[in-house]
Amino acid sequence: MSDDNKSLSDDLNDMLGDAKEGAKKAADKVSEKASEFAEEAKEKASEFAEEAKASAKEFASDAKEVLSDGKNVAIIAHITIIGFIIAIVMNGSNRTEYGSFYIRQMLGICILSLVIWVLSFVMPLLGFLSLITIILWVMSIIGALSGEKKPVFLLGEQFQDWFKTL
After folding, report:
1. Residue (of 32, 51, 53) closest to 43 by Cα position
2. Separation CA 149–CA 136 (nearest Å)
């Protein structure tokens, strides 16, 4: 029996050695594959970074083009008093005739609205004239959105003359 035990022990040792050798080969293959994947990941990351840089440059140039467009200034000028101030600042840094035209229109409409508002306290029957300023504002913003320089009726040409320094 001791020969059988010794033979069995030798067989087990051989099997254990084979298992260790197989595990070592598997570990080497896994290490090799991990290195390959790491190399591929570096290449993909580099490609992605280059694509991201190109996209960022394209976005920046598109943003500059959009911000320099007078139509945006014209539309922003119609949106509250804050929008009007922003439009003046935007137009100051990159002056366009289209943006200046609608800034002058909106300044005239705002002043007319203020005058009508003050007069409505003196003569309440004049309060209905505030509808005229709303109509002028709607006509002006439609003109700005259409891309054409359309002065508002009655006072549009005068607004351009009076505020030509803007």
Report:
1. 51
2. 14
Q: How many residues does the chain have?
A: 166
pLDDT tens sequence across 13-65:
777 787 788 878 888 888 888 888 888 888 887 888 888 888 888 877 766 66
Q: Are 44 and 106 in contact (CB under 8 A)?
A: no
Residues 6+ apart with CB under 8 A from 75: 102, 141, 144, 145
Supply the pTM of this predicted model. Answer: 0.58
Residue whose tokens read 């290490």: 31
